[in-house]
């Protein structure tokens, strides 16, 4: 089946006539294809978005947009089974995780419906000024046409994290999903159109980063770029967007620590660490891939962690009881394996994993991998791997744990596990990250801001912060007193 692009509420063929194969990560087999969109397709999509924005979408009320957002949420729920199955086949993740993703995005559209209505209630914000000569208010206007580039690890969620708040704000969107996982974006576009979204407000152009993605970032008709992906690509996008002074939001890489103190319940702590390292095959920007373990419990904790890792059921995401699916692609599999080879060469001790699981000859499967005796200069400790690979170091005291955790150019997320609530709070506050978890790990709260500091990006998604990122505050100042300013000596008016 050859899919089409979604532009102006129509399904249109890509102008190049070329397609990209969709490969099932569990088997390595081609099961579908999407158009290899390029600059001409991006131009058509941006033009459709600009027309829709100028024709009236920017002037709709929050209540009008909320009605559509709630219809989208209902459409997602009605197509829950189909969306989850497609996400698992395209991405490889276990089906229960895909169901969670589908349910979450339905909740997100509903949340932003409420926030869109809140914009009506907010109206123009009056400023408290001294004196009575002037009155200033702040009006909030949609930024305009937003180019969105989404990753392959959470295709439905990342599409929604960007699209839902943009629509709530009154923006129009052109989305370029990852070429590895484009199908759910196209399916969701169809559901959104059926919900009554006007033509051109949302457009989806599939294709590669160098072709479609770069054209989107460079297009003069785009007012903002929202990107989730690697730090290296984020830097390139920022440089390119600067040519037109486009606004940019970037959610980038991470090398996230989990700090485990010696007062934890061992089994509970092990499960939180394993979840943070191996959920979604470790293909998570906030994956806690660095374990800092308090020396007094290190041996017991690691022994139990290895047992749990070895007991994780691996297989096709569609199979019953599977907790880990394949990596998303051969490219990603090879990349992760190169990191594992580098860890071995550097002298780290491989406690478990590092190989393809027995009995899984096809697909991009990798067993949960744990390295001990890791040092600060090893690449497996410093570089984002984006796979099920956990690196372990021991620490002696709180200060050392904080130093090691912060010794990274990234600053996305961190986790602290301790029964001492004061210590957990104190350490979490000392960590240089945009997100911290205490006595839990990788919990996504859709009402809270999501994003990082340092080289993990800029801007925030989710909650009211996600909405604000698509709004421009506009100052409106009025002169209230009668007469002129009185600054100049005004000559008598000519007869």
Short synopsis of the structure:
This protein has helices at residues 39-55, 62-78, 80-91, 95-122, 155-169, 183-194, 209-218, 231-241, 266-278, 298-311, 330-346, 379-382, 398-406, 421-430, 463-468, and strands at 5-7, 10-12, 19-24, 29-35, 125-126, 134-142, 145-149, 172-176, 202-204, 224-228, 247-251, 257-260, 290-294, 349-352, 369-372, 389-395, 410-411, 413-417, 435-438, 453-454, 457-458, 471-479.
Structure description:
The chain has a 7-stranded mixed sheet, sandwiched between helices. The protein folds into 2 domains: 5-252 and 456-477, Aldehyde Dehydrogenase, Chain A, domain 1; 257-438, 3-Layer(aba) Sandwich (Aldehyde Dehydrogenase, Chain A, domain 2). The protein has helices at 39-55, 62-78, 80-91, 95-122, 155-169, 183-194, 209-218, 231-241, 266-278, 298-311, 330-346, 379-382, 398-406, 421-430, 463-468; strands at residues 5-7, 10-12, 19-24, 29-35, 125-126, 134-142, 145-149, 172-176, 202-204, 224-228, 247-251, 257-260, 290-294, 349-352, 369-372, 389-395, 410-411, 413-417, 435-438, 453-454, 457-458, 471-479. It is an alpha/beta fold and 495 residues long. It is 39% helix and 20% strand. It is built from 15 helices and 22 strands. It is globular and about 95 Å long. Helix 4 (95-122) runs parallel beside helix 5 (155-169). Strand 8, helix 6 and strand 9 form a beta-alpha-beta unit. The mean pLDDT is 97. The chain starts with a strand and ends in a 16-residue tail after the last strand.
